[in-house]
Design a protein that fits this description.
CATH topology of chain A: Rossmann fold
CATH class of chain A: Alpha Beta
Oligomer: heterodimer
Shape of chain A: globular
Number of domains of chain A: 1
Order of helices and strands of chain B: HEEEHHEEHEHHHEHEHEEHHHH
Largest sheet of chain B: 6 strands, mixed
Strand content of chain A: 15-25%
Strand content of chain B: 15-25%
Number of helices of chain A: 11
Distance between the termini of chain B: 45 Å
């Protein structure tokens, strides 16, 4: 479990970015952290693997205070994938990059080979295994960064803006992959602005604004609330805007994804016909 | 329309961008990133260029301002003419007066200690007078809505404001064409929508030709005169949004706006859609007609 207790954090310049965050994320939960640029989302998740330490309050990973463990040790349990892959990639080939952590953790050759190939396959990167990560497109580099963390099989996976630069098919694959991780009892936490992606995954949504948690609940409740969306510089999913523009026809108002919208609208259509 | 007007209408001088049989292979790469691409964009058009990850859209953009072949080496075949300039002959310093380029991540573009200095950099390098530079900076800051941030350091302002500063810096060069490579990726949805509004106003009010590379078609479609969709280095669809958002586009990984996809699903179930909507407003009024008693 990931738990924060009255977590405050200020950068050395003195600006307080997190202002007393209390939250609990259970094992194998799937959570999206959303909010405006500068809300403190990335600052918050950097606490989960100990890169940031609270200025006040504390962060507990599986019951242990992050101040009492090294980042290297927490990282075995909490894999963090950065927003910008270029902050993370440095090897000559994709395969070296992805197998780097396993070598560091001292796995044997056969295991390294098997696990590396398997994750490259899953993320549709096998054809690039001998390419330099820097010759790949932005979306592909993003997947290499993801593979290089998932390969060591951390218990909690934290993703910062995983859908940036990904096309629709890649997002579909990513969504299936995340849901698969969740079904394997891994915790998945993602920071994202991608409301449509969240509308399709339907995780628990934690809404952050100016360093505070302003809402916490199921995606269809949070994302269909126009007031909350405005407060956090989000735009509701298109389905939610559509349904609220047709509110006077008696349609459901907590719809955020295309397939639910289709059922509601077809039902209404059959009634009037 | 008179005959001379018609001739004028059809003359190639109206084309802001002419790409003819373009093929480009990066140095050290086995297969071309762009393969036999041909298209022409008229002055004043707002074109969205999209396609799955790795389809070659960024490479096409790099040709439009001469980064290919002057900065990225490789094998280039075919012709690219932008505002009458052949990108092969013309150095990037000349092209940059005609074509402005806005990158995905404004951090890669801004480097000064104040927003104002960043915006002034281009005009100063053109050798413009102090007065003219000042005037252009004022104008660019105002058009992009960041006059009040002029003395702030770029790294102190929000991502959306940084991207506005990057656009202002390009705008101060008074380009005829602006190429924007996923300018909204790092922004929250509201800031993204605002940036696209700024780009739209540059197009409508100043007639700047826009080539916008964008995955977020739910936000960009309403402004596009035309959508060009690439896949595996080739142009595979080219037309109005409602014409190109079809099954083929969806299957290669184009993020068709959810609202358009919904209408297509409902149409299959027998609901009437005389036109296929690309915005929530359009869909709402079409549905109201079907559902109103």
């Amino acid at each position: 479990m990931i738990k924060t207790e009255m977590l405050h954090f200020a950068y050395p310049t003195g600006d307080e970015v997190l202002k007393g965050i209390d939250l609990e994320i259970e094992d194998s939960e799937f959570v999206a952290i959303m909010g405006e640029n500068g809300a403190g989302k990335t600052t918050l998740i950097k606490h989960f693997n100990g890169l940031n330490k609270p200025t006040k309050g504390r962060v507990l990973i599986d019951g242990v205070d992050t101040r009492k463990r090294s980042v290297a040790s927490i990282s075995r349990d909490v894999g963090l994938v950065f927003q910008n892959p270029d902050h993370q990639l440095f090897c000559e080939t994709v395969k070296e990059e992805v197998s780097f952590s396993l070598k560091n953790f001292g796995y044997d050759e056969a295991t390294i080979e098997r696990r590396t190939n398997s994750i490259l396959e899953t993320l549709d990167l096998s054809e690039y295994c001998d390419s330099s990560p820097f010759t790949l497109s932005g979306g592909e580099r993003k997947r290499v960064a993801l593979a290089s963390v998932l390969v060591w099989n951390p218990k909690h996976v934290v993703l910062d803006e995983p859908t940036i630069g990904q096309d629709y098919l890649q997002k579909d694959r990513l969504r299936n992959f995340i849901l698969q991780l969740v079904s394997q009892r891994k915790t998945v936490i993602m920071v994202t602005h991608d409301v449509e992606f969240v509308a399709e995954c339907k995780p628990r949504v934690l809404l952050l604004s100016r360093g505070n948690v302003v809402a916490d609940g199921p995606a269809h409740k949070i994302l269909s609330d126009d007031g909350l969306a405005n407060q956090c510089s989000l735009i509701r999913p298109q389905m939610s805007s559509l349904m609220s523009s047709l509110k006077d026809l008696g349609l459901a108002q907590d719809v955020i994804d295309v397939y639910t919208a289709r059922s509601c609208l077809l039902e209404a259509f059959r009634k009037v016909r | 329309m008179s005959r001379s007007a018609l001739v004028l209408e059809m003359t190639p001088r109206l084309a802001a961008i002419d790409v003819n049989n373009l093929t480009f292979t990066y140095l050290g790469s086995q297969k071309p990133s762009v393969a036999n691409v041909t298209f022409s964009i008229n002055r004043g058009q707002f074109v969205v260029l999209t396609g799955p990850s790795g389809c070659g859209k960024t490479s096409v953009c790099r040709c439009l301002n001469g980064l290919i072949p002057h900065f990225y080496s490789g094998e280039l075949h075919g012709d690219v003419v932008v505002c009458g300039l052949d990108i092969r002959q013309c150095p990037t310093s000349e092209l940059s007066k005609k074509v402005g380029f806005v990158f995905q991540n404004p951090e890669n573009q801004l480097f000064s200690l104040s927003v104002e200095r960043d915006v002034a950099f281009g005009p100063e390098n053109l050798g413009l007078s102090r007065a003219e530079t000042r005037e252009r900076v004022e104008w660019a800051l105002q058009v992009t809505g960041i006059s009040s941030l002029r003395h702030r350091a770029p790294y102190e302002v929000s991502g959306g404001q940084q991207q506005r500063a990057a656009i202002a810096a390009v705008l101060a060069m008074k380009p005829e064409v602006m190429v924007l490579d996923e300018p909204t990726s790092f922004l929250d949805p509201r800031s993204a929508a605002e940036i696209l509004k700024v780009v739209h106003s540059l197009n409508r009010q100043m007639g700047i030709t826009i080539v916008l590379v964008e995955h977020r078609l739910d936000l960009a479609s309403q402004y596009a005169d035309r959508i060009i969709i690439m896949d595996a280095g080739k142009v595979i669809l080219d037309g109005k949004p409602s014409e190109v958002y079809n099954e083929r586009a969806r299957l290669i990984g184009v993020g068709i706006p959810r609202i358009t996809f919904l209408a297509q699903l409902l149409q299959k179930e027998g609901m009437p859609f005389p036109t296929i909507p690309v915005t929530v407003e359009e869909a709402s009024s079409l549905l109201r007609r079907s559902l109103g008693s």
